[in-house]
Amino acid sequence: MPFGRSASRRVVAATGGGSARLVKPGDGRADTSAVADSTAAATAVSRPPAESRLRDERYAAVVGSELPAVTGLLAALFAVVAAIHPFMLTGTPRVVMTIMASVTSLGFLALCAWVCRHPMGGTTALLTISGVCVVVAANAITQMYIAKRPFETSSVLLIITGTGVVVLALRWFVATIALVTIGWFVAFQSLAVAERQHWFAAVVLALLLSSSTNQVRRRGIDRLAEALEAAERAAVEDGLTGLLNRRGLVLVGEQIVATARRAGNAVHCLFIDVDGLKEVNDRQGHSAGDMVLVAVADALRQSVRAGDVVARWGGDEFAVIGPGPGTAPIDMELRIAGRVSELPPEGVHDWQPLVSVGSAMLTPWDDGDMSSLLDAADREMYRRRALRRTLNPPTGAKPAPADAQD
Q1: Do 310 and 199 fall into the same domain?
Q2: Which of residues 229, 250, 283 is at a domain's end?
């Protein structure tokens, strides 16, 4: 499928800045072998995963960045708890809880050292933070059970609330909260407590608070990610036509050229200039000129081959880069003119849908790069436009002298 309107996050990651969304395929016949070899990487990264997976990856990245601080603070906290347990507890609970807190502190310290040197992400980060919450809750629930102290439920309430802050992915949050709540309920049922309803009500309130906190934090992260994505997209997308801008074309085009080089394939470039746009702007206003540009951009999207990248180079100029030999300039001119005639720009009068197209090709044995490819196509476009104007001068204009034509 041809590239078009917007930058996909996965392509941004692959190209180091920004790329394009897929658009509807054109009518041109593609060189299937060249397209398959040269655009495999680009098309693979352009398929967006499910929205839930994107969110989980986003939350996992945040969790991974917070793991060193969370585990470090918990290691220090449990070291303090292990130090005060001998003074606060007696008998078997004192021995068991002191050992348990000490082991937990050392475990969190080791985990902190590990994640500082080996940052986590993805499912590993989500699983780790959920495990951390369960271990912390296990300490509180165990102390409540063996010491027969129902008021240790207050510690469980704090853990439930804190889980909503640190476990961001929804299904991991629900699973962790359910595990902690079930563990507390089983231990609490074994205690002789006269007024249980107060503790149950407190747990329900903690669950509601944790859920609300989790939702607010996830929403904040999502909004920040959307703002960053919009900023990235604006950096590589033309605001008027929705095509890539010059920066976006450079980013994606360099990837296509590099991929074609590795596969031993050619890369083509088309440079397109909209004829008569200045006259439309002067006579009918820039809003009419914008309508012309949008119409040409839409026609260009529908005219390119599979795997071609379309961009607005600037002003009234567009560029197409893709694998293989590409479409002949005269064919592209006819396609664009035909499609614009079928769907002319609204409110624009006395404009003939004409474009000038120049082409260039970078073969596997050439020493050029994408910049030289674009320059060659640009020069060819100017030559073709000058030749057409010489052979078909505007009405009322004098034909060029024979000496000038030579």
Answers
A1: no
A2: 229
In a domain, 46, yes or no: no
pLDDT of residue 161: 92
Please tell me the total count of domains within the chain.
2
Question: Residue 171 domain-assigned?
Answer: yes
Q: Residue 304's domain is classified under what CATH number?
A: 3.30.70.270
What confidence score (pLDDT) does residue 213 get?
A: 92
If asked whether residues 286 and 161 sit together in one domain, one would say: no
Q: What is the 3-state secondary structure (H, E, C) of the chain?
A: CCECCCCCHHHHHHHCCCCCCECCCCCCCCCHHHHHHHCHHHHHHCCCCCHHHHHHHHHHHHHHHHHHHHHHHHHHHHHHHHHHHHHHCCHHHHHHHHHHHHHHHHHHHHHHHHHHHCCCCHHHHHHHHHHHHHHHHHHHHHHHHHHCCHHHHHHHHHHHHHHHHHCCCHHHHHHHHHHHHHHHHHHHHCCCCCCHHHHHHHHHHHHHHHHHHHHHHHHHHHHHHHHHHHHHHHHHECCCCCCECHHHHHHHHHHHHHHHHHHCCCEEEEEEEECCHHHHHHHHCHHHHHHHHHHHHHHHHHHCCCCCEEEEEECCEEEEEEECCCCCHHHHHHHHHHHHHHCCCCCCCCCCCCEEEEEEEECCCCCCCHHHHHHHHHHHHHHHHHHHHHHCCCCCCCCCCHHHHC
pLDDT for 192 = 76
pLDDT given at position 132: 94
Residues 187 and 298 in one domain: no
Is residue 168 domain-shared with residue 55, that is, in the same domain? Answer: yes
Which range of residues forms the domain containing residue 304? 9-20+239-405
